[in-house]
């Protein structure tokens, strides 16, 4: 029993037409995912206009504005002025924010802009949140200036239709880039931080693409329903919610939701090569993405602002995803039902194939077990491709796999996926038969659907629905007297709509450095296509699939290397810092680049880290001698020591924005305060890797310094580092060429001056 699941007259033509039809479906999904046309300055007054929002963005997103900088202060003043002009009550909350990580306590003096507008008959509070600080490496036009400008334009448009029913709070937070410090201080100290309303938080991880709803609080069914009904062109899917809940990443949404806010988190993720770099500029911002962001913000605020917010509780989590032109949603209770139906349909297909003597049960079982091989091989080959690319082009690794022109490489991953499938399918085709392989392969989306239903129900649709549709299509292909090919094609439409689109989103969000993840989705899609692939793959020529796929992958990779060039709009990155030891009077250049380019090699020439200050080195690869200079020095005064508890007075020195304290023993807790603020305290677990094990940071340190208390059992020494953004004041420094920008590492593009203190 080694028959085909489906045969057809003119089978090659039918197979080619079927593949073309699926290509059209996938193209339709891609086209439907584009952002809308931006509206001009003279758009209707009650509409959101990207052009009007850009007018605000041009006032503050032309230079970096990290926490504590002069640019940050100018931005704060502009926001206060504009929101007061729109009739909002505005307050600047000044506080110390805090966060912790492995061996790390991070603090910062934040200045949150909090604006309020009372509702006419409130049932609760709506909060719009975005952060106005940027990473130190760039102007942050997308992250998160666009959302801040969109809030200003939304605030204006809301006034055109009279007051909302519910209270409205606008939180423009500070210090998000340094550990969500502003949001943490807001929920800890501000009365509105405990209002427990409905939160809409807006972020960015790139410079364009549709605005995705990628995170929600739990029991999101009613919120998802509002989103699907009210938002123009709603985008996103519940698998992102499940994935994000598993990751250590966070945004301002994290402390706000932990404080009791229900809500949704939004971001765009395309064109990620600009993220946290000097090219996150207004010129590189997609205007259509800004329009989509603002139109979504305005529509949801109006809808929720006039909704009885007490009706949004409960009902569990919903599954949601986008098909061309429509957002599909269904309740969580339906997830196990669909999973059971997919298992029953798969069982029915197995029985029908066995009864028609197209394949035996042992052959289908062997096919099912062996089908794990192409899934694993596709992921492995994708990661091998990345390793080869990063080895040949080390600057790709510096970019974290988020390249400027990644399309040829993504196509190469798809070709390698075809190679993995062919290496499994071609040898087993004659031994087990096409029908056994097609049915056995379908066991994987069915089984993964069962697993996801238990572990991550919001993501189960990615496997359950393709498995159900393909099993039903296969039953039609086996049992129907007519229309067998049409039945098969209808079943394949569902995986064609879902799996390639998910792979595309994974490429956008994770980059080529984690190419194995989208490759796995593409391989799963490929397993569903086996009945169709069989039509276009004559047995006598099947072996050609392997060298053809390999040749195509190599050609696409070579093409990628050809087109991925650099210029001032698409620059390469480098890591470089100047480090001076104030105790010894020596200075060094340091770089974390794996293979520094010609400009960086002006400053670094070897790997000797022995001359660096105690506890400074962390993941550094290159060093070089530098000329000492007069610069801001950190000053640490040991006020008292009570057992393991150190009380310190810390100053950064004139012009320095931040101080980092590294301890030679792990720390277990830390607190910090500045004049006029309450102390902020965090517990600390773990140790810092590849450096001294305990670390305390204070970003945006005021000129008067800060009082810092640290519990450091057995601590004997600390090294204090005063950090000033930029290298232009360093003797002998020559600015980089215009096609080179600082990397996203937080310890790069810094002038760092250290001093070491004995604690005993």
From TrEMBL:
GO molecular function list: aminopeptidase activity; metalloexopeptidase activity
Chain segments annotated as coiled-coil in the UniProt record: none
The Peptidase M28 domain, residue ranges: 112-300
Keywords: Aminopeptidase, Hydrolase, Membrane, Protease, Transmembrane, Transmembrane helix
Statement: the UniProt record of this protein carries the keyword Hydrolase: yes
GO biological-process terms attached to the record: proteolysis
Gene3D superfamilies the UniProt entry points to: Zn peptidases (3.40.630.10)
InterPro entries recorded: M28_fam, Peptidase_M28
Transmembrane segments: 12-32, 333-353, 365-389, 409-428, 435-453, 459-480, 485-503, 509-530, 542-563
Domain of life where this protein originates: Bacteria
Name of the protein described by the UniProt record: Aminopeptidase
Source species of the chain: Actinomadura verrucosospora
Taxonomic placement: Bacteria, Bacillati, Actinomycetota, Actinomycetes, Streptosporangiales
């Amino acid at each position: 029993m080694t028959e085909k699941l489906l045969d057809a007259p003119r089978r090659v033509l039918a197979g080619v037409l079927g593949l073309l039809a699926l290509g059209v479906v996938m193209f339709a999904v891609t086209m439907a995912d584009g952002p809308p046309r931006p509206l001009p300055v003279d758009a209707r007054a009650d509409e959101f206009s990207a052009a009007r929002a850009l007018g605000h963005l041009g006032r503050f997103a032309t230079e970096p504005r990290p926490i504590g900088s002069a640019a940050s202060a100018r931005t704060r003043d502009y926001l206060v002025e504009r929101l007061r002009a729109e009739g909002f009550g505005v307050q600047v909350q000044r506080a110390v924010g805090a966060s912790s990580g492995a061996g790390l306590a991070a603090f910062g003096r934040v200045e949150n802009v909090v604006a309020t507008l009372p509702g006419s008959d409130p049932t609760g509070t709506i909060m719009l949140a975005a952060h106005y600080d940027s990473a130190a490496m760039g102007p942050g036009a997308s992250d998160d200036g666009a959302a801040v400008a969109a809030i200003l334009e939304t605030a204006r448009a809301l006034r055109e239709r009279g007051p909302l029913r519910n209270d409205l709070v606008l939180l423009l937070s500070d210090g998000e880039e340094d550990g969500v410090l502003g949001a943490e201080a807001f929920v800890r100290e501000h009365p509105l931080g405990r209002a427990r309303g409905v939160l809409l938080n807006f972020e960015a991880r790139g410079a364009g693409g549709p605005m995705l709803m990628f995170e929600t609080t739990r029991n999101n069914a009613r919120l998802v329903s509002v989103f699907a009904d009210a938002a123009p062109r709603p985008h996103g899917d519940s698998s992102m919610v499940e994935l994000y809940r598993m990751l250590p990443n966070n945004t301002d949404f994290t402390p706000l939701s932990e404080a009791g806010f229900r809500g949704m988190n939004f971001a765009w993720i395309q064109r990620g090569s600009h993220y946290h770099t000097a090219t996150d500029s207004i010129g590189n911002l997609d205007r259509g993405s800004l329009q989509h962001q603002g139109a979504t913000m305005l529509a949801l605020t109006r809808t929720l602002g006039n909704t009885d917010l007490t009706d949004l509780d409960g009902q569990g989590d919903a599954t949601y995803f986008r098909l061309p032109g429509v957002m599909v949603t269904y309740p969580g209770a339906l997830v196990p039902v669909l999973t059971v139906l997919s298992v029953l349909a798969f069982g029915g297909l197995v029985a029908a194939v066995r009864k028609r003597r197209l394949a035996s049960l042992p052959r289908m079982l062997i096919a099912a077990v062996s089908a794990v091989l192409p899934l694993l091989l596709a992921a492995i080959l994708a990661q091998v491709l990345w390793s080869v690319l990063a080895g040949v082009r080390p600057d790709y690794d510096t970019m974290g796999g988020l390249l400027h022109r990644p399309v040829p490489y993504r196509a190469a991953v798809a070709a390698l996926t075809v190679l993995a499938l062919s290496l499994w399918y071609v040898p087993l085709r004659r031994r087990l038969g096409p029908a056994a392989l097609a049915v056995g392969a379908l066991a994987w989306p069915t089984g993964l659907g069962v697993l996801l239903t238990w572990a991550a129900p919001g993501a189960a649709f990615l496997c359950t629905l393709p498995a159900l549709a393909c099993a039903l299509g296969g039953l039609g292909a086996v049992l129907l007297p007519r229309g067998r090919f049409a039945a098969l094609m209808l079943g394949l439409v569902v995986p064609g709509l879902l799996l390639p689109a998910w792979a595309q989103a994974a490429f956008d969000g994770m980059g080529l450095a984690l190419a194995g993840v989208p490759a796995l989705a593409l391989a799963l899609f490929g397993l569903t296509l086996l009945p169709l692939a069989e039509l276009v793959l004559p047995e006598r020529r099947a072996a050609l699939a392997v060298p053809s796929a390999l040749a195509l992958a190599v050609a696409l990779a070579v093409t990628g290397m050809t087109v991925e060039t650099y210029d001032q709009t698409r620059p390469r990155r480098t890591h470089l810092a100047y480090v001076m030891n104030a105790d010894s009077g020596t200075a060094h250049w340091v770089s974390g680049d794996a293979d520094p380019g010609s400009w960086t090699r002006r400053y670094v020439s070897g790997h000797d880290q022995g001359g660096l200050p105690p506890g400074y080195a962390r993941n550094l690869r290159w060093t070089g001698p530098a000329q000492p200079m007069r610069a801001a020095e950190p000053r640490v005064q040991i006020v008292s020591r009570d057992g393991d508890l150190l009380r310190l007075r810390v100053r950064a020195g004139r012009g320095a924005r931040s101080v980092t304290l590294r301890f030679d023993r792990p720390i277990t807790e830390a607190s910090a305060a500045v004049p006029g603020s309450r102390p902020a305290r965090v517990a600390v677990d773990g140790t810092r890797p590849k450096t001294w094990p305990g670390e305390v940071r204070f970003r945006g340190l005021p000129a008067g310094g800060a009082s810092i208390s640290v519990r450091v059992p057995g601590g004997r020494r600390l090294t204090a580092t005063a950090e000033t953004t930029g290298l232009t004041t360093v003797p002998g420094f020559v600015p980089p060429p215009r096609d080179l920008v600082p990397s996203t590492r937080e310890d790069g593009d810094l002038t760092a001056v250290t001093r070491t203190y004995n604690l005993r």
